[in-house]
């Protein structure tokens, strides 16, 4: 459910896509819903349409980065896979 991953410095973004790569329609609000599901796990990411933007702090440990991405994976699964 992730496509078009891009990164510049510590900022990263990816698009939420259907299996096969087709984008979700903006009316489905997948980006907002994924960010809300992530927030329930104390993870703050920003939606821009069906794009999710990450701006993690520079001082994250490898363990914290792993926690961030596992939590984000759970949020995406909850919204895009289980829906």
Account of the 3D structure:
The protein is α+β, with helices and mostly antiparallel strands and 83 residues long. The protein has helices at 30-39, 62-81, and strands at residues 2-8, 11-16, 46-48, 51-54. A four-stranded antiparallel sheet has the order 1-2-4-3, covered by helices on one side. The model has no long low-confidence stretch (mean pLDDT 94). It is built from two helices and four strands, in the order E-E-H-E-E-H. Helix 1 (30-39) crosses helix 2 (62-81). The protein is globular and about 35 Å long.
**Element order: H for helix, E for strand:** EEHEEH
Number of helices: 2
Q: What summary fits the major beta sheet?
A: 4 strands, antiparallel
| Average predicted local confidence, pLDDT | 94
Numbering strands along the chain, what is their spatial order in the largest sheet? 1-2-4-3
What percent of the residues sit in helical stretches (DSSP H or I)? 25-40%
Q: In oligomeric terms, what are we looking at?
A: single chain
Q: How big a fraction of the residues is strand? A: 15-25%
Whole-Å distance between the termini? Answer: 12 Å
The total of beta strands comes to 4
Q: Given the helix and strand composition, which structural class is it?
A: alpha+beta
- Return Rg in Å: 12 Å
Uncertain residue ranges: none
Write down the overall geometry: globular
């Amino acid at each position: 459910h992730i496509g078009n991953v891009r990164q510049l410095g510590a900022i990263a973004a990816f698009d939420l896509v259907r299996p096969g790569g087709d984008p979700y329609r903006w009316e489905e609000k997948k980006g907002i819903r994924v960010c809300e599901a992530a927030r329930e796990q104390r993870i703050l990411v920003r939606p821009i349409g069906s794009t999710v933007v990450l701006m993690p702090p520079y001082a994250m440990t490898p363990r914290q980065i792993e926690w961030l991405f596992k939590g984000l994976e759970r949020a995406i699964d909850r919204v895009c896979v289980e829906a």
